[in-house]
Amino acid sequence: MSLEVLLGIVAAVLLVGVLAVRVSVRLGLPSLLLYLGIGILLGEAVLGVHFSDAALTENLGLAALVLILIEGGITTRWQAVRPSLGIGIGLSTIAVVVSILVAGTALHFLLGLDWRIAFLWGAILSSTDAAAVFSVLRGVGVSPRLAGALELESGMNDAPVVLAVLLLASTDPLTWVTPVLVLYELLAGAAIGFALGVAGAWALRRAALPSTGLYPLAAMGVAVLAFAGGQLAHASGLLATYVCALVLGNAKLPHRGGVLSFAEGTGWLAQIGLFVLLGLYASPARLLDAVVPALISAGVLLVLARPLSVMAAALPFRVPWREQAFLSWAGLRGAVPIVLALIALVEGAPGAQHLVDVVFVLVVILTLLQGTTLPWVARRLRVVRSVEAREVEVDAAPLDELGADLLQVRVPEGSRLRGVYLRELRLPAGATVSLVVRDEKAFTPHGQTRIRENDQLLVVATAEVRDRTEERLRAVDRGGALVRWREADPGRETPGAPA
């Protein structure tokens, strides 16, 4: 195939994938299923493109998963997920172990699988999917505690599940050293990701790059480096990636808005490419034989494994039964279980090709069932918040030659900045609101200018007071004009804007 034909096919698939997002919203279907459909359409059964390289599919799948985890980590606000940290860690550790044990035991008796193979199936089916959660959950509107728990789970549970799959797919005996090695890999991966995230954020704040477009590339490079560093250290590269991205996404980066937008676009590209690739790899002729085992496995997950694992993880945190029920139903599966099954296939596990087919059918069934009904379930369980105020967005661009920073502040609906006069902001000396953009029109403000929802404020601050300025803006956003007023600079009579 010539280069121009290959690039043309890739571009066409990408454009169709982007349009599929809009179509999926109108039809109420998760867009991930449409991507799988595009891959199957291109495959051997329809248009005749033959692709059956399991090792290449596994490697490309892991690469796409790294980009998806970066997007999830960078776009996750720490303040939003911090209250859910305990339950999120519980869902990504305790719930994984319980799900493997329950699903493996049930499938051993129901499908007659060998014990080790049954637990391998349980491990592969236990992982929720970051792409599915990030694309479906954020449109449901559940409480921050539930959304944070599910996002943390989907971002962190891939690491222990991959380790479990590698251990169970091999023929090496499991000894008392095994859990120690797993614990080391997880802790070392988290430490490497945190260290590189802190170092990367420090370097980006002090780097004077010649183009704003280089900052998103550098941030993504640091997060990918965390994966490589974790793998080379025989630790969990996936956990290192997510932790590093989480640190970077919550650091005060230059051009943070551009970094977030680039990460989100890259995440969508990875999702589209991954699901099209998996659809291309699938063989429809073999999928019919996998329907019955997939239905049985789906029933085990929905009725036994997922509810019991959520109960075990939520027990120490006194989570109400309605929230537990929603967490059970929101355990979305996507591409990750298919990639995990491919890992087992490459490792030479018995019956792994049949397992790949079963998991593919199961993912389609569960995505149709859970993805389309999740908003309805959330409303029935009364865990939806109709109006949820978003945190104020503050983006920063360095003005290196002037020794200052330009802060771009977007005032979201529900912010307590609404109605505040600029003089009431009490910004520190060295900071001023230089421009306001309202209804696509810009004007120079004064102390009596009153902030409205959806305003964009351009704030110029010297490098010395940049952090204090951002902290003050976020404080007023959360608590209104009178919050911590005694902390304002007493030497500033008309702060925030020129009189």
Please characterize this protein's 3D structure:
- There is one protein chain.
- The chain is an alpha+beta fold and 499 residues long.
- The protein contains 20 helices and five strands.
- A five-stranded antiparallel β-sheet has the order 1-2-5-3-4.
- Helix 2 crosses helix 14, helix 12 (214-232) packs antiparallel against helix 13 (237-249) and helix 16 runs antiparallel to helix 17.
- The radius of gyration is 25 Å and the shape is globular.
- The model is unreliable at 485-499 (pLDDT under 50).
Main attributes of the structure:
single chain; 499 residues; alpha+beta; 5-stranded antiparallel sheet; disordered C terminus
Provide a compact summary of the structure.
The protein has 499 residues and is an alpha+beta fold.
Q: Overall pLDDT, averaged?
A: 84
Query: What low-confidence regions span 5 or more consecutive residues with pLDDT below 50?
Result: 485-499
How many helical elements?
20
Q: In which order are the strands of the major sheet placed?
A: 1-2-5-3-4
Report the β-strand fraction as a percent range. Answer: 5-15%
In whole angstroms, the N-to-C terminal distance is 67 Å
Q: Percent helix among the residues?
A: 55-70%
Shape estimate: globular
Helix-strand pattern, N to C?
A: HHHHHHHHHHHHHHHHHHHEEEEEH
Output the structural class. Answer: alpha+beta
Radius of gyration: 25 Å
* Structure summary, number of beta strands: 5
What oligomeric state do these chains adopt?
single chain
* Largest sheet composition: 5 strands, antiparallel
